Each structure stands twice: as structure tokens, then as C-alpha cells.
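Researcher: Re-running this chain for the archive, since the previous output was lost when a drive failed. Same request as before.
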Amino acid sequence: MSDSNLPTNADGLVPAPFVVGAGGSGTTTLRLMLDSHPQLAVPPETHFLPTLAKKAEKPGITPADLAEVIHGDPRWGDFGFTQEELTEVIGSVDPLTGTGVARAFYRRYADRHDKPRWGDKTPVYVKSMRRLQKLLPEAYFIHLIRDGRDVRLSRLNRVHEPPPIQNAARRWRRRIERARRISKDLDHYMEARFEDLITDPEPTLKRICEFVSLDYDPVMLDYWKSAEDRLQEMAHNLPAEHNQKRRPGTRLERKKSSMKPPDPSMVGKWKNALSAEDIATYEAESGDLLAELGYELNTR
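Model: Regenerated C-alpha cells:
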């Protein structure tokens, strides 16, 4: 499909879904669902866009400077490019801008997978949505929200020394409240629930597809059949200093739940896995937001 045949918004841009949210909220699963669509390619987490946007604003910037931002990131190996290919891609951008470089990167990634459209899944971008909207006006932000108590469990399985539960509750609350404040300045923002995505994914996926002008395709429900193959991009280890806070094991092992069909038992695991004391502490910090979002409270 040529670009001229793709759906565009009022500004003539093809909407690009950007999945954001607190770490441990199930964004990898949503990425794989979207990526399984025959028209959409969503790479592993990028992380470099805010730095790229900032550096591109400096006078006298060169293609090599912007290439270094991308291939200097520890996750560079996830994208399947050689440095020579990246240099070629950036060298084709004229005039040289951060927007042009970002678009060229995503388009090349999509081309490698024979897809006409691209998106992104980098949870931490939830803090940078204003800057990213300026960089890429076609970004349509999908904020995936999950019960913070289950987010806590997910993080416990990933890091050596998790923060005290009180701190974790505050961080989850701040992340969501900050995103909602930022959303008032965004042209395209929606929220979706992890719990809905897992227990009854089709309505949520249809709503997301409508949001980004993408025809819904039932193949998205079978994302897990190709998930292991898609996640092979992350089979290599990151530099040791990047992994020092992580629990032993590969990145693929930490993504194993995303390689299986949606499992409703993942919803509400905190009820049996967290102690009564931890639940009370978490709810003392963030219970009002949990209730506002429609999550049941264990303590009142």
C-alpha cells in the first residue's frame, strides 16, 4: 500500500500509535497485539526520541550526531539495523531535522517487516508526551493503565531491590496523574485498561484501532502465536551496567507472559500475593486514585 492510500488525519498525517504507561502495566502485550496487525509495525522500546529531539535543535547538527543518539542507546541492537544502514537512512533526510530522522527510522523499520504503517511502545514516554507531540505530530498516545497493586507485583519479579511499597504506590500515582495533566495539552490521547485488554480484548482493540484510523483485524487476538518470534529481537543481552538492577535471567524470560494467550488470572493477583500490610500501605497512598479508576479496595 502506498502512503497516498493510507488514512490520514485533518493535518494529512497517518496516525501512529504510541503505547505508554507505568512499567509493568502490560504494554508489551499491547505492543504485540498491535504489531500483529498486517499494516502496523511496532519496534521494541526506543527510548532515544527525547534526546534526539533535543539534540536536533542545536545549531550545526550533523547526520553523524543524530545517528550517534540512536546507535549509542544500549537497546540499539533490538532494531535489526547495521550502523551503515542507519547512516544511510539519516543521510537521506533533507532538510535534516529530528522529525525527519525519527520518521525515517520508523519507516525503515516498517519496511523491513513489509508493513505500511508504524507505531511505538516505550512506557516511559508517558512523561515526554508534550515533547514527542512536537517532534511527531502524528503520535496518538494510548495510555495503558493497570491496577497499581498488580503493577507492584510485576515489578517485584523484575528487579533485585524493589523500592518500598509506599514509594511504589506514590510513583504509580504520580505517573498516572502526571499523564492526565499532560493529556490536556495533547491533540490525541486515550486511556485503556490492562484488565479489559486481558479479560475481553476485542472491544478494547477495536476502540484503539478506531482511535488511530486502523481497520480492526481479528488476527490481533492471535498475537501470542507469533510473539516469541517477534521478541527474538530482544534475545541479546544489554550492557552489564544496564542490567545491574534486574533479576537474573534474559529479557525474553521476563516477557514470557506476553508469549501466551491472554490469561484472566493475571488480573487481581495482588489479592493473594501481597500481604495484608502491604495492601493497606499501598491503598493508604493511592487508594483514592484506585477507586477513581474503578478498582476495588481491600481496606476502607
